[in-house]
Amino acid sequence: MKILVSxxxxxxxxxxxxxxGWGWVTGLAQRHQVHVVTRKARREAIEAxxxxxxxxxxxxxxxxxxxxxxxxxxGSRGFMAYALLWQxxxxxxxxxxxxxxxxxxxxxLTYGNLWLPNYFFLLPGNFVWGPVGGGLVPAAFRAGYGWxxxxxxxxxxxxxxxxxxxxxxxxxxxxxxxxxxxxxxxTIRLLPKWAREKAVLLPETALDPAVFxxxxxxxxxxxxxxxxxxxxxxxxxPLKNLHLAIAAFRRSFSEHPELAGGLRFDVYGEGPQLETxxxxxxxxxxxxxxxxxxxERGVLMERLRQAHLFTHLSAKDTAAMAPMEAMALGVPVIxxxxxxxxxxxxxxxxxILEAGSPEQVVQTVADALGELARNRQExxxxxxxxxxxxxxxxxxxxxxxxxxxxxxKALQRRHAAGS
Length: 419
Hints:
This protein is α/β, with parallel strands linked by helices. It has helices at about 15-30, 45-50, 80-100, 140, 145-165, 170-175, 185-190, 215-225, 240-255, 275-280, 295-305, 320-330, 360-375, 375-395, 395-415; strands at about 1-5, 35-40, 60-65, 105-110, 125-130, 180, 200, 230-235, 265-270, 290-295, 310, 335, 350-355. It is built from 15 helices and 13 strands.
């Protein structure tokens, strides 16, 4: 097939959305001719990566608003407004590409959600939207946030519902799409009923296990080290529920005094919740909980390799890249069964909790920490199973194969209907 992809985020040396964009388009280019529209800021890194490993089937096109139109963007300030504006210039670049090439599939990929408009559906070809996400933090968990975070989440819910029904570009994208790929079951329920028949569940995340060296014997040795090292890596935001992890640590020490000195929690990342989390940890936990700020990716991966557990108590994220990378290194994940994490983690390879209430989560995490601190044989088993889960179900060849099968089936339905 010949495929044109809009990938706002696409970087060969980054994780998160950028890693997804790069992994997706390079995976497609193994078997298809792929053209990609992405940001000019990614050009240097992409060209360096392609110089090291040429990919004849991958052709990059770069688009950006002119500097005078985005003078107000400084770092993360104005980022979402910039992302919205970029979609127009991606469309213009896409039109130029389509004047020279004819595509079987036109896909809008990264930063796909049910309220952020895109305009690739206006291009000729079978439009595939997604994988897209959508959804809100469960109400029970919002109660523990500050008033600003609660207000933001409330407004987000109102905006999502309005835009899903009143935003013309979103509705036209749904109407024009041959296929809507969704990250979670919750996203399907947010679609209008008439659009749900086009929706297919497909997580967007995957990785290349070969990039994450794994030695079973080394992991088994790591599992036996006396101090249980738990890590978190990512933005420090209210929806990440880091305050619940800190509360669980406090309770573990309270209910299991024998664990004193045997538990360590390393937090890697920055964000608006940093000072709140420091206060919650307090001076009594300053020898057990450590805040390291942002680390260069290579250093962070080495720190993850030395960890025993990765905590990811977000009540909203889909199968995020950070816990997936941890599992690839043989680090089991403790997470909530919501927001798509149930697609990544099960009881055979990690600790997955029902998102009943914050109190239940704190108690269950505290119990799990105590159990795994004592039962290192179970920890070693989870470690091997986490790596195996990634190799079997979350490699890029497997994800691209799923995408191909879904697209082929959708196109067959189209031909059978004679449209």
